[in-house]
Amino acid sequence: MQLFYQKEIHSAQIDLEQEESKHLAKVLRKVVGDEVHLTDGVGTLYTCKIVEITLKKTRLEIIQKSETPALSHHIHLAIAPTKSADRMEWMLEKITEIGFQEITFLKTQNSERVYLKPDRLEKKLISACKQSLKTQFPIINPLVNFKELLATTAQNYEEKYIAYVDENNQDHLYNLAESGKKYLVLIGPEGDFSPQEIDSAFKAGFKACSLGHSRLRTETAGLAAVHSLVLKNY
């Protein structure tokens, strides 16, 4: 199955955007009468029939739809962007394929970058969702100050963890986490969280966690954290 995306589907007939139409017509060589699978990104899978197709426009008719069951867990990764935007985009693509529900970018005391292009991130996420056949697209939140995240978002989570460089911290995230929970995991920049930020996180109810014996790059740590929690809920 190949999955296509169209947001805000409100009628029985759908006009695909030009980029998707061109892919259907030129690359896949679809014709009138062929079936196409489509998602709105909020959990619905549509089986559609092509009723009109050109390089610029494709009209689909919905013949069946189904809802994706809600997951018992929620993985929210809060991470300081790397100096290289490409590395963050790579991580976002991979954790989307593995499966997570929400990401927030953090501005910390040692942050290397305080801006990412939301349009590029969204394109990476949509592409990864289509590739991995996901109908429920993760949420991308804008950059937020570390202190603000602790004061607001953190209050809504059952299990809260902070990963930072500490040789004495041997408790792996996989072993600490319980399945079927709402998780919020903090990953710092290459320069790590400051001692003050770590202390503030502890006071806000976060637990220290390890992601293994190796010292990881920021984007690798984000990937490892998401993968650990997905395995816990497998």
TrEMBL record:
It catalyses: uridine(1498) in 16S rRNA + S-adenosyl-L-methionine = N(3)-methyluridine(1498) in 16S rRNA + S-adenosyl-L-homocysteine + H(+). Keywords: Cytoplasm, Methyltransferase, rRNA processing, S-adenosyl-L-methionine, Transferase. GO terms for molecular function: rRNA (uridine-N3-)-methyltransferase activity. It is found in: Cytoplasm. Specifically methylates the N3 position of the uracil ring of uridine 1498 (m3U1498) in 16S rRNA. Acts on the fully assembled 30S ribosomal subunit. Signal peptide: none annotated. One of its GO terms (biological process) is rRNA base methylation. The keyword Methyltransferase applies. Belongs to the RNA methyltransferase RsmE family. It comes from the Bacteria. Its EC number is 2.1.1.193. GO terms for cellular component: cytoplasm. The lineage of its organism: Bacteria, Pseudomonadati, Bacteroidota, Cytophagia, Cytophagales. It comes from Echinicola pacifica. The keyword Transferase applies. Gene3D superfamilies: 3.40.1280.10, Hypothetical PUA domain-like, domain 1. It holds the Pfam family PUA_4. Residues 16-62 form the Ribosomal RNA small subunit methyltransferase E PUA-like domain. Residues 73-228 form the Ribosomal RNA small subunit methyltransferase E methyltransferase domain. Its main location: cytoplasm. This is Ribosomal RNA small subunit methyltransferase E. InterPro entries: Alpha/beta_knot_MTases (IPR029028), PUA-like_sf (IPR015947), RsmE (IPR006700), RsmE_MTase_dom (IPR046886), RsmE_PUA-like (IPR046887), tRNA_m1G_MTases_N (IPR029026).
